[in-house]
Amino acid sequence: MNGPGSVMRAGPVITSRTNKKVAELVRLRLPRQRARTGNFLIEGYRELDRAVAAVELSAVYYCPTLWTGRNEAALLARARECGARLVRLAEDPFHRVSHRDRPDGLLGVGRIFPTPLTGLPPAAEPFLLVVEGIEKPGNLGAMLRTAAAAGVTGVIVCDPVTDPFGPGVVRASLGHLFTVPLAIADAESALAWLRRRRIGVVAGTPAGESASWDADLSGPTALVIGSEQRGLTRRWLDAARQVRIPMAGGPDSLNAAVAAGVLLFEAARQRTRAR
Amino acid sequence: MNGPGSVMRAGPVITSRTNKKVAELVRLRLPRQRARTGNFLIEGYRELDRAVAAVELSAVYYCPTLWTGRNEAALLARARECGARLVRLAEDPFHRVSHRDRPDGLLGVGRIFPTPLTGLPPAAEPFLLVVEGIEKPGNLGAMLRTAAAAGVTGVIVCDPVTDPFGPGVVRASLGHLFTVPLAIADAESALAWLRRRRIGVVAGTPAGESASWDADLSGPTALVIGSEQRGLTRRWLDAARQVRIPMAGGPDSLNAAVAAGVLLFEAARQRTRAR
Q1: pLDDT digits (tens, 9 = 90+) for B83-111
Q2: CB pairs under 8 A between A and B
Q3: Distance of CA B87 to the CA centre of its chain
Q4: Distance CA B174, CA A209 (A)
Q5: Which CATH number fits domain B117-274: 3.40.50.300, 3.30.360.10, 3.40.1280.10, 1.25.40.80?
Q6: Do B146 and A255 touch (CB under 8 A)?
Q7: B123 interfaces chain A, CB cutoff of 8 Å
Q8: What are phi and psi of B231, to 5 degrees?
Q9: Inter-chain residue contact B269 with A213, CB threshold 8 Å
Q10: What ipTM score was computed for the predicted complex, to two decimals?
Q11: From residue B129, how far is each of A78, B15, B143 by CA, in Å?
């Protein structure tokens, strides 16, 4: 009775794009609606696959004719086991709720989870990414995905300008928003937290005195990356060792997410060597 | 008579968003229109600043009330000296021709320049980025920008899926589309060209047998990165030493532009060390 077939036959179907539920889902793209309801959108197979073990899902909306042949029915069954309501949508309303040009027929609604600094797990060799004031959802998402790939022990999103629970971040993170230990904090609290744990703060900045590959990134380290337009604020620069990525093409020649990747993997290289 | 003031007083002004010229500019967003006319769009101060020395500009459209206080009048004067016609637009038509949410009041029309493999400059220590089948303009642009930053001697765009002369690529490259030696080619020609020059081909792939920091990237090297969805084709994989970026988060956990950045700067590190 719990096989994929039964999942797909069960429950309601929404066929109209003016359905009230559809309008509610569209509204969840707005930060204030997420703040009001405590819910956020998780679209896509890979994203939901990562969310199902980590996030409280209240519902999953699905449209089998848009599926791409992964194992969608089994994922739905897992979501239902975890307590998610399953609601089938026709293609037309699904296109309306989707954030994508080519939706893959899966859209979940999850509960925004708490992200205090105290929730970051203790680590024998702390290795954190701190990002300050990132503006573009695509960059913030890519940074979370890259941090997960580099094996960080946590990410601190500092004074966010774009909401980490927005659909663009979920998408660009490919669901690593849920796999990487995450805190959201203001700069003062984050700096105090790092100091108490004696974690060295290393700022990536074009004006850094030492090249990233000459700086020691092997100890307890928090790499800090600033916003796309303005870089890091004084508060972080003053509290940090400053390192630069040696560039041939001038100071504005790296995207913020690429810069984070270069520094994270230089640190990962040094940490592997040190072991 | 050639100061910024005279630049801004001279020439025609377009006030209507339905003007024929405005419609032509909008059409240049389409690849087929670029192919038909041989023209492409270069929007934004930094992008035009890099283009003016490198690209044949036929015209620059400008809207002073949208300027952000850089040195727009001087840039216009330089463009005019290089032969560009200057056309003033009112805000309304400028918003229509702009590709951006917040345009900065500068949009150039440049001639698509030839990009043969034979145009790549000879280099004592060849260091190339080869990208295959990249789909997203933002990724291709970021890769060009990152390659410039890493000091490559050339970029080969192989079997492009997205047009390198599209507005999204120009934008994400921040104009480094014009600063980095660029060739567009099919895989066979590119491989033959690299072989004739005895340039080692190194493929970045999650299945690579050696870690990027254990592989020697200091000799004459072409780093090859595949498409976002499918990675590299057999043709490239078979012709290359395969290296992987050691990842904690699974094989799909790096964005293609970030992966290119990590490998390019690992190579840059090794090449600096080797000197």
Answers
A1: 999 999 999 999 999 999 999 999 999 99
A2: 111
A3: 25
A4: 25
A5: 3.40.1280.10
A6: yes
A7: no
A8: 65, -150
A9: yes
A10: 0.91
A11: 42, 44, 9
CA end-to-end span of chain B, whole Å? Answer: 50
- How far is the CA of A64 from the CAs of A9, A89, B90, B158, in angstroms? 11, 9, 48, 35
A57-71 in b/e form (b: 16+ CB < 10 A) is bebbbbbeebbeeee
A129 touches chain B (CB under 8 A): no
DSSP-assigned states of every residue in A129-188: EEEES---HHHHHHHHHHHHHHT-SEEEEES-SS-TTSHHHHHHHTTTTTTS-EEEE-HH
Q: How many CB atoms lie within 10 A of CB B48?
A: 28
Of residues B157, B155, B53, the one with CA closest to residue B108: B53
- Tens-place pLDDT, residues B178-234: 999 999 999 999 999 999 999 999 999 998 999 999 999 999 999 999 998 889 999
| C-alpha B73: how far from chain center | 25
Question: What global pTM score does this model have?
Answer: 0.92
Domain A4-111, architecture per CATH: 2-Layer Sandwich (3.30)
If you ran DSSP here, which 8-state letter would residue B214 be given?
T
For chain A, what are the domain ranges?
A: 4-111, 117-274
Q: Which residue has the tokens 């904690």?
A: B248
Distance in angstroms (rounded) separating the CA atoms of residues A152 and A125: 10
